[in-house]
């Protein structure tokens, strides 16, 4: 598996993500929320045998960085963990996580900050010894 890192408006991003972002099955896996990007995003894209197997967009906001509306084919834990490892840990890195992926994010150093029905707000623990 190769992990690509692309800026939010790079043409290659649209070529790779476009077919998935407009696929009804992928949208259903994302609870029917659309994917979006701007110049404030960095995208981490897992590619295997020239197929995109998942992606994690990271948006830079005034209060830090946010992972939101990510996708992994068949909820592949190995792909998601690989994508999360590729995201360079930054201070104030938050993630809005689907409840079914809580354990994977936790194993990658994220801690729960708030729970909703279908999502969990998690923050990256820069001190993994806590």
From TrEMBL:
Superkingdom assignment: Bacteria
Protein name: N-acetyltransferase domain-containing protein
Species for this entry: Bacteroides uniformis
